Structures are given as C-alpha cells and as structure tokens.
C-alpha cells in the first residue's frame, strides 16, 4: 500500500511538471503572464524533474537557459535517489 502511494505521487507530480512547462510555453507565445522560474524549479525539486525535463524537450521551453539545462537534470538525479530511498524505507 505504501509503495502505491509513492508511485501515485511520483506520477502526479511529474504530470504536473510536464504540463506546467507546456502551459508556461503557451503563455510565453501569447505574451501573457508567466509562471515564475522559481515555481518551475520547485515542482521539479518536489519530485517532478522527469516531467519537467520531458516538458522542456517536448515544448522546447527553457532549453537555452543554463540554469535549466543543468538544474533540471541534477534535480532528476536527486529525485531518483530520494525515490529509491523511500521505496527502500517504506516499500512492502
């Protein structure tokens, strides 16, 4: 049961990361109010780095920013390590 909650959380936060990058790209094209970069990073840090990275690639958004080119993959590694530790601690 505990592992199912972890998996559900990881899927939900990564979906949010993916869609928030798509939404921000849409707002950029429309020249409308954008999502702050801090919020994009917080979603990635909260476990949504894989979705954020896929969103960056799919929507070609924030791919020229060095902070995103290096930061999102670094957060992805951190997310994987944290998820592995959670599964090891609470899995069963």
Please tell me about this protein's structure.
By secondary structure, the chain is mainly α. It has one domain. Helix content is 83%, strand content 0%. It has three helices and no strands. Helix 1 crosses helix 2 and helix 1 packs antiparallel against helix 3. It is elongated.
Largest sheet: none
**What count of helical segments does DSSP give?**
3
**What share of the residues lie within helices?**
over 70%
What ranges have pLDDT less than 50 throughout 5 or more consecutive residues?
A: none
The oligomerization state is single chain
Number of strands: 0
How much strand?
A: under 5%
Category by helix and strand content = mainly alpha
Mean of residue pLDDT? 94
Keywords:
92 residues; mainly alpha; 83% helix
Q: How are the SSEs ordered, and which strands pair?
A:
Layout: H1 2-29, H2 37-59, H3 66-90
Helix pairs in contact: 1-2, 1-3, 2-3
Nutshell version of this structure?
By secondary structure, the chain is mostly helical.
């Amino acid at each position: 049961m505990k592992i199912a909650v972890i998996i559900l959380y990881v899927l939900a936060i990564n979906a949010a990361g993916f869609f928030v990058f798509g939404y921000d790209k849409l707002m950029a094209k429309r020249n409308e109010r954008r999502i702050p970069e801090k919020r994009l990073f917080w979603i990635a840090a909260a476990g949504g780095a894989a979705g954020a990275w896929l969103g960056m690639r799919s929507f070609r958004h924030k791919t020229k920013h060095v902070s995103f080119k290096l930061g999102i993959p670094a957060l992805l590694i951190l997310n994987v390590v944290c998820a592995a530790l959670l599964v090891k601690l609470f899995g069963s």
